[in-house]
UniProtKB/TrEMBL annotation:
Residues 130-430 form the Aminoacyl-transfer RNA synthetases class-II family profile domain. This is Asparagine--tRNA ligase. Belongs to the class-II aminoacyl-tRNA synthetase family. It comes from the Bacteria. Keywords: Aminoacyl-tRNA synthetase, ATP-binding, Cytoplasm, Ligase, Nucleotide-binding, Protein biosynthesis. GO terms for cellular component: cytoplasm.
Amino acid sequence: MKITINQAKDYVNQEVTIGVWLANKRSSGKIAFLQMRDGTAFMQGVVVKAEVEEEIFQLAKSMTQETSFYVTGTIQEDTRSPFGYEMAVKGIQVIAEAHDYPITPKEHGTEFLMDHRHLWLRSNRQHAIMKIRNEIIRATYEFFNREGFIKIDPPILTGSAPEGTTELFHTKYFEEDAYLSQSGQLYMEAAAMAFGKVFSFGPTFRAEKSKTRRHLIEFWMIEPEMAFYELKDSLEVQENYVAFLVKSVLDHCALELERLGRDTTVLEKMIAPFPRITYTDAVKLLKEKGFDDIEWGEDFGAPHETAIADSFEKPVFITHYPKGIKPFYMPEDPENPDVVLCADLIAPEGYGEIIGGSERIHDLDVLLERIKEFGLDEEAYSWYIDLARYGSVPHSGFGLGLERTVAWLTGAEHVRETIPFPRLLNRLYP
């Protein structure tokens, strides 16, 4: 019977065969312990000299790290390991020997590991992070499908930009100028006018020369857009979505969270609703905490966001930012034209903004004025202006950054660990 490691629980006391790689090993004179992986999970194989042929025991002792092989043996319960099962090995059939594998069990520098990212992904820690990333993706589809959203795929090559072109990658589209998308939002607004509630999930690009632990050049965004939704309605969707993601990870990735040493008691508190604080009150809070450098009208940096988040046990919405620091498509607050109807969701523990969202302008005259005010090319945005011209309605949307969310839930220090092959300011390899 050929199985995978994650099926071991269903084959206790049965003899099975699994295709694996050797992650690590240790041995004494009479027993060899093989740390094996097959892509689904990690499991220990125990080779007892007295219970196997001499050739098999010597093979177990001499195999090198990342050698691939078929291993045959009996699945047994193992209460000492987090996985809960191990194999009493009876046979080994080598598929391909690996020699001089560069990533050994010793400590390696970050740059070395990033240069070998194609191999680093095989490690226990990286495997756990990618499994949690996958669960967040799976749960995202479950949540939005359950809530009646339609998935729409916006283009990656665009002729205009939702937030200006200063941080976009420029390319030639035959004889025209084009850009790699920094957001699918404008296209999702068009889709919302056709389908009501939509979401996209795809790669986005920012030509931002930043080296912080929160930034990537290429990253993935989940961007829902909802017709007939005001800001307060959108905030409710956002907090329910994030709470659903956290619960899904807690329910389905307990082993991975334990492997990463993540404090799950913190995550267990992430139940909706989440607290809300206006930008104006957030500035007051920061000044009370000794941040005398921040003035009303300035955007928050990472230290400011962390200080605000530290005042709450859950993610916190910062709402009603100054009009001057937000994009053109955000409408003014009817009660205070100096601020716009928007919110950022700040994660706890110093992980910063994981969601940015707002209502969108649906009044044609206001939209035209704002496009002019921002110095944007009206012709380039003519299709977007059509949305306000032909039966627009109040609508809202948001974008959740997948990698920042993975970093928060896994406790990863840097977002470079939360995407399979990160693109950073000075890294395009591998």
